[in-house]
Amino acid sequence: MGAPSDKPNTGGLPVPVTPAGASSGAPAEHPPASPAGRGMFGIHGTGDVSGFGGLVRQRQPVEETPRPYGGYFDEVRDALEEAYPAFGDAIEKVVVDRGELTLHVRPERIAEVCQVLRDDLALRFELCSSVSGVDYLGADERRLHVVYQLTSMTYRRRVRLEAAVSAEAPHLPSVTGVYPTADWQEREAYDMFGVVFDGHPNLTRILMPDDWEGHPQRKDYPLGGVPVEYKGAEIPPPDRRRSYQ
Amino acid sequence: MTTSNYATERETTEGRVFTVTGGDWDQIVSGTDPINDERIVVNMGPQHPSTHGVLRLVLELEGETVREARSVIGYLHTGIEKNLEYRNWVQGSTFVTRMDYLAPLFNETAYSLAVEKLLGITDDITERATTIRVLMMELNRISSHLVWVATTAMELGAINMMLYGFREREYILDIFESITGLRMNHAYVRPGGVAQDVPDEAIVKIHKFLKMLPKRLKEYEDLLSGQPIWTERTKNVAVLDATGCLALGVTGPVLRSAGLAWDLRKTMPYCGYETYEFDVPTHPDGDVWGRYLVRLAEIRESLKLVEQALDRLKPGPVMVADKKIAWPAQLAIGVDGMGNSLEHVAKIMGQSMESLIHHFKLVTEGFRVPPGQVYVGIESPRGELGVHAVSDGGTRPYRVHYREPSFVNLQALPAMAEGGLIADVIAGGASLDPVMGGCDR
User: Fold this and answer.
1) Contact B383, B250 (CB under 8 A)
2) What is the pLDDT of residue B291?
3) Which residues pair with A234 in a beta bridge?
4) Which of A114, B166, B253, B256 to pair with B278, CA 20 to 30 A apart?
5) Which residue in B74, B79, B394 is closest to A206 by CB distance?
6) Which of B406, B114, B142, B376 is nearest to B251 (CA)?
7) What angle do CA B330, B334, B338 make, to 5 degrees?
8) Are A25 and A12 in contact (CB under 8 A)?
9) pLDDT value of position A244
10) If contacts are CB pairs under 8 Å, which of residues 153-192 in chain A contact chain B?
11) Over 90: is that where the pLDDT of B133 sits?
12) Residue B47 has pLDDT above 80, yes or no
């Protein structure tokens, strides 16, 4: 910013001045879109005087919950352990948080686990409510998590299965053989996250156009957008703005 | 020389004479039915008045019979889930309300319940706020079902029903407008409670509506239920039994029309639904007719629920007491519409610098939500509306996924349509009640 004497005399009217950092090394020019957990903090040379520069929030790893879990969660685990001999190999960890049970499943075992959960008389998770993805970029080596919400109508219970795959080898078996309703939902997860469900009858894009490139819900997918100039200052597109983390 | 398929012929002095005798009909038609050998592919939509928005159906037809049906969706995809990740938690309400535009209050409530569960404040939501949510949701269910009757009747040929249905819905939208300020896209239910209290004039309007609707419903039933065209077009049409529904994940009125009384308000209650008295209507046949009866019965149950909610509406706060979550603004109607109340503006601008800072921080930065993930399912007019919300501990959602009943239920369309007539594709598709805004998000 220039000193007052540098300003041209405009008869007392304020002259729009580009703030320092708005154009040089500004967020808009910074290539990485928003590596998860970093946001705009940690970007240098922006003239950011908020004191947050370089701040990176640490994410706590998800830890196995010790038994007893309480509620029906112990029963579900015991029933699954009894009905499924490969339990120890297939279930990576069991997490109980906020009154919800999450079984972290090895991806290659997901269809088997679903089959047992659906068919065993003590489990009976007849309905697959939801299949979706979450991209834990930067927090997990296997960053793409596929999340299954199963509902037992007989026992009125819910359980969540989570299978993590890496972006380099995003393959896991499709559960459409067990739950036909997973058809479109797996297509959506493929469309949005690029997770490939092996054995899916028709794994094509569903929400985005067929010729779309990239998988928009991934955290490193650039949002696009152009910086907007307003009264001399440049406002970067949404994913490149300074943000609270 | 060709032989006639229809009759033997002989020449006489008066000319050619045909002797008509009985014959094997199959033999007669076998040579003259080119239609069976020909399949044509028809694109129905994405711009078609009977597909409820921009749904495209690719139908392979043999004559009038549908051999294969495929639905193509995505034309209304607006990336709401992705957008949510770039706004703070409260701003999320404004986005999710635009998904299923016929049931905006369900989207908001499901989202708010999920955020509250992440925050661990589910038990702190005030009773009045919860009651208002129930009241609004049930009114919304009525308006959504009214639109369903209206559009479906129109697609099957009853234009007058369309006008009546939309007329009654407009009355509900008026009620919504006097409560939330908007007919649609309310952003009224917020994490922590609701945006503002219900004004007395709205209560009066709701009472009037409760008196008026049962009579009108009776009229609609008189209009449709005994109508031969309506019954012909709906009975035994687009049948899907409970097994098919479960395999395809179909929930809501369609599942209940197949005889399974699965209603999350009863089976996995939320918002205190377990303390209300209402029934879950079902029908054994699993056809369009059953779905029509179930939806009409559900309107009546919702009327009961609205009445009970009105009785319970005791004065009290409509937002959680925690000032780190509740927005400080008190809204009021001014000359230029709804906005911050003058008292609040006077306080933050003239009296309390702390309040100003607090307001500013909460509105620009928002509150932080402890890391973790939750799944909340509620019973929307179309079935299970689920929200899977993930927080990384920041002021914005890390990921929000909507399990949209329209999206999941639409998968059942081929199962209903294949083997039936093309006209029944319309009836079957309409009976699923898909809303493409919700389906494509």
Assistant:
1) yes
2) 92
3) A229
4) B166
5) B74
6) B406
7) 60
8) no
9) 59
10) 153, 156, 158, 160, 179-185, 188
11) yes
12) no
Q: Is A151 on the interface with B (CB under 8 A)?
A: yes
**Pairwise pLDDT comparison (B30 vs B378), residue with the higher score:** B378
pLDDT for B313 beyond 70 = yes
Statement: residue B226 has pLDDT above 60: yes
A56 pLDDT above the threshold of 80: no
**Structure tokens that stand for B421 in this block:** 């007539």
Give the pLDDT of residue A21.
Answer: 39
- In this model, does residue A5 exceed pLDDT 50? no
The single residue listed with the structure tokens 């069991």 is A94
Q: Does B138 touch chain A (CB under 8 A)?
A: no
Q: Looking at the partner chain, which of B262, B365, B441 has a beta carbon nearest the beta carbon of A244?
A: B365
Q: Is B79 on the interface with A (CB under 8 A)?
A: yes
Q: What predicted TM-score, i.e. pTM, was given to this entire model?
A: 0.83
Contact A183 B441 (CB under 8 A): no
User: Minimum mean pLDDT among A34-48, B87-101, B140-154: which range?
Assistant: A34-48
Which residues from A are below 8 Å from B411, CB to CB? 180-181, 183-184
Q: Do B384 and A129 touch (CB under 8 A)?
A: yes
B225 reaches A (C-beta below 8 A): no
Q: Do A37 and B407 touch (CB under 8 A)?
A: no
CB B143 within 8 A of CB B172: yes
Mean pLDDT for chain A? 77
DSSP-assigned letter for residue B122: G
* Residue among B132, B306, B131, B105 nearest B206 (CA): B306
Chain A nearest CA to B309, separation (Å): 26
Q: Which of B250, B388, B410 has its CB closest to that of A147? A: B388
Identify the CA nearest to B71 among candidates B441, B429, B435: B429
Query: Following DSSP, what letter does each residue of B144-202 receive, concatenated?
Result: HHHHHHHHHHHHTT-HHHHHHHHHHHHHHHHHHHHHHS-SS----EETTEESSPPPHHH
Closest chain A C-alpha to B377 CA, distance in angstroms: 9
Tens of pLDDT, residues B396-425: 888 999 999 999 999 998 998 888 888 888
Residue ranges of E strands in A98-238: 100-105, 127-135, 144-152, 157-165, 171-173, 196-198, 228-230, 233-235
β-pair partners for B243: none
Compute the mean pLDDT over every residue in chain B, rounded to the nearest whole number. Answer: 86
Residues 6+ apart with CB under 8 A from A67: A74, A77
Q: Which helix (H) or strand (E) holds B66?
A: strand B65-72
Best mutation target, A34, A104, A190, A207, to test chain B (most B CBs within 10 A): A207
Q: Are A133 and A111 in contact (CB under 8 A)?
A: no
Longest dimension (CA), chain B: 118
pLDDT at position A22 is 40
